[in-house]
Amino acid sequence: MDIIFLGTNGWYDSPTGSTICTLISSEKYHIFLDAGNGIYKADLGEPRKSIEYYEQQLMITRAIGDRRGEGNALFDTSLALDGLGKQAEAAKLAADALAIYKQIESPVVEQVQRKLEQWQG
Fold first, then answer.
1. Are residues 86 and 108 in the same domain?
2. 70: how many CB neighbours lie within 10 A of its CB?
3. pLDDT, tens digit, for every residue of 5-29?
4. Within this chain, do residues 94 and 59 fall inside the same structural domain, yes or no?
């Protein structure tokens, strides 16, 4: 079994510390411990694979009514799409995520807004 620190994800940093993303990997399973937007670090150069994970995350979060998780899945997908050069699709999903983040008064509203503005020119 390997435990791999993937870094801090920057979403919920506070004066007491930063949230982390960690991978626990074994022969049979790969488990992500992520407090926010860290799963994109696991694509290892395969953004299409990340998009598959985010689509699964989106279905689950919608099914259980997890609005923050839904916003995260949408925004993470937008970042992966941007990596594929699909800024128009990325901007659409980021706008959807931003609407959710505003509704739930998430601390990441400004960060997502800046990225969306960057894509929209």
1. yes
2. 22
3. 666 555 555 665 666 667 677 787 7
4. yes
